[in-house]
């Protein structure tokens, strides 16, 4: 429907411009080289002007620029037409070029410019389209995440780190614009997340969305985002199967859970550990991670010792501890939150078993250490962000100073948000001044950069831009050491 309407408007525009030029030109018959590129929100349409009788001498290049607010016309040699209003009722458009060979004595440039300013040539053109969430001075981004309740600390830390990165970007400017973030709480509820995404896109008119949390909330918002072609950048806590379903709409700035599982199992093989067990959240996402760990164990030739599913509310941690103690594993992978992980570990120790415990990145090591005290020594965690306390890393140093100034706690979650914010800012810069959602998608798909010790690469169709994983130890005071 839209493409047909754009085609009708294009034909009308070409006919009108042709007639206008015929009235102004005389001379030998020469072709007009192109009726530029006609861009709608979903693709490209082309056309051409019929040959005109214009003078032999070539010279001028006229551009009708419908991409900027106010819609103005320009001449190649620097002449500029004052802003003019787009014609009412036209379809939103982008940039249209009209190349003509002409003799300035036969067709006065000033006459052409005045005709354009008066609307003689511009009236049928596609009207200027202001991209949602973008003004001359601001880019509005949206976030739907769990900002209240027991699951909120990680999401709030992500947001705090991102805001610091956005302030850094705003100090430099992104083609004269500043980033503004509008955040809504979804309480980790998929239905509420969908409502939030609809409000962000349709009511608040955000340009793009960032830092969603959780696979089900992300899936719930996906139809809204896809319908409006809104990019979602750096969602966290999203299992790999959901990542695959969001291909083309979402861009992930942390390694996949399969990558984490592979790194842990590879570490066990290096240390000579043969028997591996898993404690996981008893959810579809937890089951998926269990399968990924089993696959990695089989691939490395190790032995899967058993597993225990833990209810999200932690109500069966004692039973889980018994099952893991009976498994006789040398290493236990914990795909659990901090409190549940601490309870399971205590249950295993209480029965005399002493495996090595390895948490995946969702485990809050500081929370676990606070609950276990001295017993937490030896707990290792796979982290998908670099060490935030690295004194040799200039980006990490800048992040810590900014955290101190902003009152944001230094840690893996806020550092993840900080690096994600840097990726967002760089993608916006590379998308250019003439900012559209499609151009941001294109910028992200071509993005390769190094930031904070991470190599990001979204080229070749990758929706996950990094493979970074490293293991760190948790001290009794909750501090991480490498």
General description of the model:
With 482 residues, the protein is of the alpha/beta class. The chain folds into 3 domains: 2-128, no CATH class; 138-254 and 390-466, Rossmann fold (3-Layer(aba) Sandwich), CATH 3.40.50; 257-383, 3-Layer(aba) Sandwich (Rossmann fold), CATH 3.40.50. Helices cover 40% and strands 20% of the residues. It is built from 14 helices and 24 strands. The protein has helices spanning 2-24, 109-118, 152-172, 190-203, 215-227, 240-245, 257-271, 284-300, 317-327, 338-350, 365-372, 394-406, 412-431, 437-445; strands at residues 29-30, 34-35, 37-39, 44-46, 52-53, 61-65, 72-75, 92-93, 95-99, 127-128, 138-145, 178-185, 208-210, 232-233, 250-251, 275-281, 303-310, 331-335, 356-359, 380-383, 448-451, 454-457, 470-474, 480-481. The strands form 7 sheets. It has a 7-stranded mixed β-sheet, sandwiched between helices. The chain has a 5-stranded parallel β-sheet with strand order 12-11-13-14-15, with helices on both faces. Strands 2-9-6-7 form a 4-stranded antiparallel β-sheet, covered by helices on one side. Helix 5 links the parallel strand 13 and strand 14. Helix 7 packs parallel to helix 8 (284-300), helix 9 crosses helix 10 (338-350) and helix 13 crosses helix 14 (437-445). The chain is globular, with a radius of gyration of 29 Å. Residues 17-128 have low confidence and may be disordered.
């Amino acid at each position: 429907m839209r493409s047909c309407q754009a085609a009708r408007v294009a034909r009308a525009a070409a006919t009108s411009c042709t007639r206008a030029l015929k009235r102004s030109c005389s001379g030998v018959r020469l072709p007009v080289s192109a009726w530029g590129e006609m861009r709608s929100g979903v693709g490209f349409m082309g056309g051409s002007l019929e040959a005109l009788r214009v003078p032999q001498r070539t010279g001028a290049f006229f551009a009708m620029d419908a991409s900027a607010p106010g819609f103005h016309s320009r001449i190649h040699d620097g002449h500029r037409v004052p802003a003019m209003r787009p014609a009412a009722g036209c379809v939103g458009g982008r940039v249209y070029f009209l190349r003509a060979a002409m003799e300035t004595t036969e067709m006065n440039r000033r006459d052409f410019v005045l005709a354009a300013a008066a609307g003689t040539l511009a009236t049928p053109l596609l009207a200027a389209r202001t991209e949602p969430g973008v003004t001359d001075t601001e880019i509005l981004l949206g976030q739907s995440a769990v900002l209240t309740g027991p699951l909120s600390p990680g999401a709030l830390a992500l947001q705090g780190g991102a805001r610091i990165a956005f302030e850094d970007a705003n100090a430099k400017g992104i083609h004269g614009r500043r980033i503004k973030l509008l955040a809504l709480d979804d309480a980790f509820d998929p239905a509420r997340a969908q409502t939030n995404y609809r409000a962000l896109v349709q009511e608040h008119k955000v340009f793009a969305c960032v830092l969603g949390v959780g696979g089900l909330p992300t899936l719930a918002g996906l139809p809204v985002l896809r319908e409006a072609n809104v990019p979602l950048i750096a969602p966290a806590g999203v299992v790999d199967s959901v990542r695959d379903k969001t291909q083309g709409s979402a861009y992930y700035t942390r390694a996949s859970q399969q990558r984490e599982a592979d790194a842990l199992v590879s570490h066990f093989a290096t240390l000579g550990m043969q028997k591996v067990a898993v404690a996981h959240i008893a959810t579809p996402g937890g089951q998926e991670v269990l399968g990924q760990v089993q696959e990695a164990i089989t691939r490395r030739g190790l032995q899967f010792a058993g597993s225990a599913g833990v209810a999200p509310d932690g109500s069966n941690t004692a039973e889980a501890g018994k099952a893991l103690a009976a498994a006789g594993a040398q290493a236990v992978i914990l795909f659990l939150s901090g409190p549940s992980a601490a309870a399971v570990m205590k249950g295993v120790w209480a029965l005399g078993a002493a495996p090595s415990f390895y948490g995946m990145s969702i485990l809050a090591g500081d929370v676990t250490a606070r609950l276990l005290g001295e017993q937490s020594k030896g707990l290792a965690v796979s982290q998908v962000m670099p060490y935030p306390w690295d004194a040799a890393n200039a980006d990490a140093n800048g992040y810590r100073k900014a955290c101190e100034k902003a009152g944001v706690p230094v840690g893996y979650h806020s550092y993840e948000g900080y690096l994600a914010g840097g990726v967002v800012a760089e993608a916006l810069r590379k998308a250019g001044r003439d900012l559209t959602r499609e151009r941001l998608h294109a910028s992200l798909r071509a993005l390769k950069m190094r930031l904070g010790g991470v190599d990001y690469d979204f080229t070749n169709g990758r929706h996950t831009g990094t493979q970074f994983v490293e293991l760190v130890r948790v001290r009794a005071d909750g501090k991480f050491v490498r």
